[in-house]
Amino acid sequence: MKQANIRNFSIIAHIDHGKSTLADRIMEQTHTVSERDTKAQLLDDMAVEQAHGITVKSRTVRNHYEADDGQTYEYNFIDTPGHVDFSYEVSKSLAASDGAILLVDATQGVQAQTVANLRLAQQNHLVIIPVINKVDSDAADVPRTEAQIQKLDPAFENLEMLKISAKTGMGVHEVLEAIRTTIPAPTGDKTAPLKALVFDYMYDAFKGIIAYVRLIDGSIKADDALLLMAEQTKVSANSLGYFAPNMTPIGELNAGDVGYVITGLKDPQLVRVGDTMTAVANPTTEPLAGYEPAKSMVFAGFYPKDNNYNELKLAIEKLSLNDSSFHYSLENSEALGAGFRCGFLGMLHLQIIRERLQDEYGLEVLTTAPNVTYHVHLNGQTEPMIVNNPINFPEFSKIEYVEEPFVKAEITTPNELLSDVMKLAEKHKSTLLDMDNQADLIVLTYKMPTSEVAYEFFNQLKSVSHGYATLDTTALDYEVADLVKVEVDINYATVDALSFVVHRQDADKLTQELVKKLKVAVPRRLYPTPVQAVVEGKAVARVDIPPLRKNAAVSGGKKSISKKQALLRRQGVNKRQSAKNSIDLPQAVFNAVLELDL
Ligand SMILES: Nc1nc2c(ncn2[C@@H]2O[C@H](COP(=O)(O)OP(=O)(O)OP(=O)(O)O)[C@@H](O)[C@H]2O)c(=O)[nH]1
What we know:
Blueprint: E1 6-13, H1 19-29, H2 47-52, E2 60-66, E3 72-78, H3 87-95, E4 99-105, H4 112-123, E5 127-133, H5 142-150, E6 162-163, H6 172-182, E7 195-204, E8 208-217, E9 219-221, E10 225-228, E11 233-236, E12 239-243, E13 247-250, E14 252-254, E15 258-262, E16 276-279, E17 298-304, H7 309-322, E18 327-333, E19 337-344, H8 347-361, E20 365-367, E21 374-378, E22 385-387, E23 399-414, H9 418-427, E24 431-438, E25 441-449, H10 450-464, E26 470-481, E27 483-490, E28 493-494, E29 500-503, H11 504-521, E30 529-535, E31 538-545, H12 561-580, H13 587-594
The chain binds guanosine-5'-triphosphate (GTP).
């Protein structure tokens, strides 16, 4: 394929505006797949994606398009996820594209994520084709949607926009033509030293690490000796090809192409998304700019449930490779043993990783309460202690002060929901920095503690705005905060894995809520079990879990004395045993903490 006949593009859209449906139609109309094969949304085949109805992981698919000018074009479509937790994935896909289709649902109009994704595309200097979708729907308001899009960018002002139905296929041919006529062909030099952007990775149990690449210059042939520049890792191109949408081997990838390289490499630690791939024989001198590594916002402990630590370790390693914004390190808890401290972009990300462990690896994990990274300044120390695990949060008498991270939170909301959204933000310790109009939407800019945004805020925002408001966050600096560690004692023994850190002002309310939940969640025993929440050495909330059976000392009046004595002896044995036994806690106990509105 001549380079002039290649187009690399993405589709960017607000969630549910029809991106996957349009991708399916494009694959059908270019005969990449037959209509029969396009069962329910081909691209969203990951089980979690189907369960959540959202695209999590980016895919790339090569299509061959026979255009109206009589020529055949190679259309590399790079799918992007639509959720805010995954904007990191979006930037990766966009860096590999030359243009983007900005898809807007005519029944909803421009939404916050439309604006946020457009901004990312503009930062990547992509040519943008706005397209209005769902025009077949009775609820569509095409003129209003068109007017909103026109206000987003001066370039769209007098533009005649494409109006389509991804569902019926109407107008999709015009989109295919616009891709050819509007998005530029890649401009690389096939004869220059190899320079390829590794924009994603996948792990395959048999084939090892598979790198997704966009070739900027040069070419790759099977068996070429390659170099991943970040870690100076040498690999061999065991096999290469493209996705159509299944892996399709090919002998050579050239400048401008998007495809995959099977490296055979087994160690996930040696590869990095955003890396530059070059040839050992004739390496490029200048690596590509790559990406900023994604910073974790939320941390939580993952512990194996059924003694399958090694299996869990392997699964977590593979997932972190496949999802470069998911980080982990090893950790230990007295209550739960060996486990992992995992870093996520947000709570939805955490939930999705948990589900992927279950769906793809059959592994259930115990999850501890989420937290952010704190800077703890100890008395007499100049450097702060970096704490991202409540277990390591130092004892209060040693602490001079604590700092927590803040974010700039940009909330885009329809005008009529403004007051509800503002009330919610205020509840989460925010400071309003700015207020602006964009199309028919209001953009509110707040400064907020990261912990307030990262846990439940997004779900609450979705709920008060019926899904119409969206959120975009950028990290700001650390600031002093009044934080305390809450410890949970069960039967007078601290269960370290249940500890969490909260703002002092919320500690009372949250600990009361917590013990109430624990009263139901902690398994009953033969004797009453006290559960208390402790803050700075003082028990601030307490419940007693009732015993499993009637206590011999207070009931069983009709029983004979010897039977009572036997029962008392059994209870005594149980008490002594339990003092020695490590406590076996079900996920329900951890959920009691996870469900708190921290
Ligand atoms: N009426 C109508 N419905 C559509 C059209 N395109 C998509 N839909 C429906 O809109 C819903 C969302 O479509 P998807 O293609 O899954 O949306 P998406 O943007 O890929 O969603 P995410 O992957 O979650 O970002 C589905 O129920 C589709 O059937 C259209 O042109 N007309």
